[in-house]
């Protein structure tokens, strides 16, 4: 009996949290905030691809799949490996595009305020085929890399020592044969990507498994090693 009551309380809390998340999103405010996006992305009746793909029906859409748009190789790879645009994925991408897809051509500073992101996402829901079937985005866990982590100076020699597992897939010579090259990556991009895997923001189970045991200093060392390499 006590177990059933506890379960009912947990379910009630879960439902309440979703309601709060939904009520906290302001679509009208989101429409105003979206104006900073319209130079690249169109949405609504007669929306067409521009600098970026149109965003009609973005929820549930496989990444890199809008017909006629020329995507970056990394976005296409993300789609091929199964990434679908959900409210949570959009939240991460809008906050910092490179935290989710390192090679994206979306050179956007990102929307740092969680409420602003929720409002924009709520606005985009209007242009989904079945918005009632798409849950509102609950506030995502903070995944941004703290500034002090980005200032850690990695030891390239130690990074080379740690890189054995990396170079079984990523070629140290910079070849790109189905697996993206990480040679010459800026250190901050590498660090952000690895933390995104460690925080399970990026979806690859293999990379999550590799990143999980790495300390901040280990990631900085790997970043320093691959940054100095040249194809």
Q: Assess the beta-strand content as a share of residues.
A: under 5%
Residue-averaged pLDDT:
81
Just give the CATH class of the largest domain. Mainly Alpha
For CATH, the homologous superfamily of the largest domain is named as Cytochrome c-like domain
Estimated structural class: mainly alpha
DSSP helix fraction: 40-55%
Q: In angstroms, what separates the terminal alpha carbons?
A: 65 Å
Rg, rounded, reads 20 Å
How would you describe this structure to a colleague?
- This protein has about 230 residues and is mainly α.
- It has two domains: about 25-135, Cytochrome Bc1 Complex, Chain D, domain 2, CATH 1.10.760.10; about 145-230, Cytochrome Bc1 Complex, Chain D, domain 2 (Orthogonal Bundle).
- About 45% of the residues lie in helices and about 0% in strands.
- It has helices at about 1-25, 25-35, 75-80, 85-95, 95-100, 115-125, 145-150, 155-160, 185-200, 205-210, 215-230.
- Helix 2 (about 25-35) packs across helix 6, helix 8 packs across helix 11 and helix 9 (about 185-200) packs antiparallel against helix 11.
- The longest helix is centred in the N-terminal third of the chain and has 22 residues, at about 1-25.
- It is globular.
